[in-house]
Task: structure prediction
Amino acid sequence: MNFLRHEFNGSEVSIEPDGAVYPCCVKTKLPLGSLLEDNLIEILESLAGVPAYEAITMGHPERMGIASGWSEQDFLAHSRTQRPDGAGYANLCIGCDRFHEQMLGPVLDEARQRRRAAKGLADGTAAPRRVVAIAPRER
Result:
């Protein structure tokens, strides 16, 4: 939680080895962006004000769909599944994944396009990469 509040202690994101950035330690169905294209602050700031991500940041994922027509009850219903043994199981992360699948793909695509446009890049154009050389230590 608190992932959009990157300027404060306790801000939490997950970064995969491939550069994919997720808004919490468990990850979501879709990454917020990639460190291979943008820096972390650019990714986070491009999602500030998006109601779904503000809800996650505030610790209320069950409210992430309200601006998109999902009530808290709808979210909780989407958070339910069945275990392999047939028993019912509910977890807010399941609802978050389902909301990402159904609603947030276009939101993330638009944020990525805004970040690229701010850099003067057209879609499909690779951003220049910074190469850092590390000098060998003397023994």
User: Anything to note?
Assistant: Helices lie at 40-46, 51-57, 72-78, 92-118. The mean pLDDT is 88. The chain is about 35% helix and 10% strand. Residues 89 and 136 are 53 Å apart (CA to CA).
